[in-house]
Every structure is written in structure tokens, then in C-alpha cells.
Request: fold
Amino acid sequence: MPTTDRSEISTRVLTVLEKRFGDAAHALAPDADLSDTLPGFDSLAALEYVTAVEGEFGIEVDFVGDDVRYWFSTLDRTALYVHERVEDQAA
Reply:
């Protein structure tokens, strides 16, 4: 059964970022804007991030219906988005 624990989701999202951005992601504040905080977090990196999160959690992001630029702009928002999608799938 997929996890719906927010702290575990946050940890796994951070791991996704650390794989791409290393120590810069490790020191990331949960509410820090990724594009301002992570060097090289441009539109291509953002797309790779969304794709990696989809793969990590087995979810599909709706690029049309969801405000991806909002939901994937911080670690906290991404974790909340994933939490909601995982719970939706479990229901």
C-alpha cells in the first residue's frame, strides 16, 4: 500500500532533488522557492523534477489541470501535491 505519511513523502521528494542537485538540495528550506534557491533549476530541470516525482510515487501529473509551476515550486508544496494524489489513488 502506498504511503500517505507527509513526512515520508517530503523525505522522498527531497531525495529526488538531492539526486539532481546534491548538497544544494540537502540544505533546502521546505518553503524555499526552488528556482531561486537551486542553481540550475530552470524549466528543463523543473520538467525533469516533475517527471522524477511521478516515477518515485507512481502518480501522473496533470500538466493542463494542475498549476504545476505552483505545486512544484517548493518542497512543501510538492509534498502536499504528492500526498493528495497518493490519497486519491488509495481511495
In short: The CA atoms of residues 8 and 22 lie 19 Å apart. The chain has a mean pLDDT of 92. Helices lie at 6-21, 23-26, 34-37, 43-57, 68-71, 75-90.
